[in-house]
Amino acid sequence: MKRFRLKKLMIFTAALALVLTGCSSSGNDTSGPETSQQVSEPAANATVEITDIYGTVTVPVNPKNVVSLDNRTFETLSDWGIELAAVPKGVMPADSPYYQDSAVQDIGDHREPNLEIIAAVNPELVIVGQRFASYYEDIKALVPDAAVINLNFELSEEAGKSGATLVEGLKNSTIALGMIFDKNEEAQTLNADFDQAIQDAKAAYNGTDKIMSVVVSGGDIGFAAPLSGRVWGPMYDIFGWTSALEVDGSSSDHKGDDISVEAIAQSNPDWMMVLDRDAAISSEEENVPAKDVIDQSRALKNTTAVSKEQIIYAPNDTYTNESIQTYLELFENIASAFSK
């Protein structure tokens, strides 16, 4: 499983416009998110204004007793050395420092979370997103004195939008976290690295190879549709991929859509993109690795993708760690594989 790693570290969107203005006790303004910033140490009681999906929220700089419920934030916060008071360990990678730290309270998973723990740790900030987005109002009522921000963004299934939503959402969230935790330079560098990885992966695709994306779970192979499919869908938008197969009524189901392996084989993809869902949520003893499932499929063995070993696997923790770092690593892997 990929270890959380330290890397160097905006685009305006209507859905999640994170146009951020630093507000300190001295009244000095920070520069825009795409420019070089000369940021001094934040003054005591400094705040920033974050525009999340509901509007503008005033957040203290370097808040105390932070709770994060957004899977897209954990690796960034960990890389920056940010302490968290409580997290949902039930939907986190087991190698996350927060998961392993017994001092970090466990809220549980999003199906039956123990929200009272949030109140118990008396947070100054709660970061909501992804699986916990629906609990936003409950959490605000539970901790009325805390700043609560919702960094969630939903991917559109409309052509030309799902890719932009993913890219802009990840970058905007990174900038927001950088402003809150006084990590502006790191946030800008991380976004620049992300942009470069996108350019490299896009340039490496020849424009004609047919792509098949799948989710492997419980030994079954599910179809991850263009635009809407789990993890892979937006990449058809971002990189201009040609899909090997179109399926009516496709969805964003977390296990992929149920189609026959024979249909996948008949489409004869040049490349296969594989998300191993179980690798992120099951023990090694319980999990049948996605690679084994693909390799042992008799129906797939004669496809171009399998016979030429043109298969790209998402990092093992992707299903529970859809951070900007995860996509950065994945995009770098795609660029490398396509360039061979």
Notable characteristics:
340 residues, five-stranded mixed sheet, three-stranded antiparallel sheet, 12 helices, disordered N terminus
Please characterize this protein's 3D structure:
With 340 residues, the chain is of the alpha/beta class. The protein is 31% helix and 16% strand. It contains 12 helices and 13 strands. Helix 5 packs antiparallel against helix 6 (184-204), helix 5 crosses helix 7 and helix 6 (184-204) packs parallel to helix 12 (324-339). The longest helix has 21 residues, at 184-204. The chain is globular and about 65 Å long. Residues 1-40 have low confidence and may be disordered.
Précis, in short:
This protein has 340 residues and is of the alpha/beta class.
Please report which band the strand proportion falls in: under 5%, 5-15%, 15-25%, 25-35%, 35-45% or over 45%: 15-25%
- Report low-confidence residues grouped into runs of 5 or more: 1-40
Helical segment count = 12
First and last CA, distance? 25 Å
How much is the radius of gyration in Å? 20 Å
Report helical residue fraction: 25-40%
Detail the topology: elements first, then pairings.
Blueprint: E1 21-23, E2 47-52, E3 55-60, E4 66-68, H1 74-79, E5 86-87, H2 97-100, E6 105-106, H3 116-120, E7 125-128, H4 136-142, E8 147-150, H5 162-180, H6 184-204, E9 210-217, E10 220-223, H7 233-239, E11 242-243, H8 261-267, E12 271-276, H9 278-281, H10 290-295, H11 304-307, E13 311-313, H12 324-339
Parallel strand pairs: 4-7, 5-6, 7-8, 9-11, 9-12, 12-13
Antiparallel strand pairs: 1-2, 2-3, 9-10
Helix pairs in contact: 5-6, 5-7, 6-12
